[in-house]
Specification:
191 residues; alpha+beta; globular; 27% helix; four-stranded antiparallel β-sheet; 7 strands; binds flavin mononucleotide; NADH Oxidase; 5 helices; three-stranded mixed β-sheet
Length: 191
């Protein structure tokens, strides 16, 4: 398997086809998250799946979806809204290790999504209090992230750039979203 090629291909998807993802699919997507790194193997993360269209719409209305300018205004419009979501919570006030655990779980899901032809992205900007109450989470749980999930309706492509290059996300000529990634040599240091 060309694993590096796979990693280069993985992209955040912020536009979705209006097609429901079956329960089985969402369960299969989450399963690899249960095998992810976890501080002291605490496994403190909990996953809250939302696939009901009305509930999904509530999350859409109470989150800020998409922050990358795509030449069409940036935010994910209703006609591309995600059909399902997975909220990731932990016990109590989340610390750095909780976010690290959530990141590891998310990455496993992101890899799995490629095999399943699903797209996803991490939503950071959402109203925790409102969504927690709407989903009826236990008081002691805190939502750290909401993952939007659906069939991709866009095909963003990563490009390797030098720091001096213009950091432009949208190719207005070819009409596709570019995701600029600094070349490895600019990120690493030898000591
Ligand atoms: C902790 C975290 C929070 C993020 N929050 C958002 C968000 O609120 N909205 C969004 O559109 N993308 C969000 N993203 C996705 C990043 O914008 C995305 O990973 C980045 O632009 C690089 O694109 P790529 O995932 O295709 O490599 C988040 C990513 C991470 C790791």
């Amino acid at each position: 398997m060309d694993f590096l090629g796979l990693m280069k291909k993985r992209r955040s998807i912020r536009k979705f086809k209006q097609e429901a993802i079956p329960k089985e699919g969402l369960l299969n997507l989450i399963e690899p998250a249960c095998f992810a790194h976890s501080l002291c193997n605490r496994q403190s993360l909990r996953f809250w799946i939302v696939m009901d269209p009305q509930r999904a719409d509530f999350i859409y209305q109470h989150s800020s979806l998409g922050s990358v300018s795509d030449g069409e205004g940036g935010l994910t419009t209703e006609k591309f809204a995600p059909p399902s979501y997975i909220a990731i919570s932990t016990l109590g006030e989340p610390g750095n290790a909780d976010f690290a655990d959530a990141g590891a779980a998310f990455q496993n899901m992101a890899i799995m999504s490629m095999e399943m032809n699903l797209g996803l992205f991490w939503i950071h900007a959402f109203s925790e209090k409102i969504i927690k109450s709407f989903l009826n989470l236990p008081e002691e749980q805190t939502i750290m992230a909401i993952i939007a999930v659906g069939r991709p309706a866009e095909n963003p492509v990563a490009i390797n750039i030098d720091p001096t290059e213009v950091n432009q996300f949208f190719d207005s000529k070819e009409k596709f979203q570019k995701v600029p990634k600094l070349k490895t040599k600019y990120l690493i240091n030898w000591r």
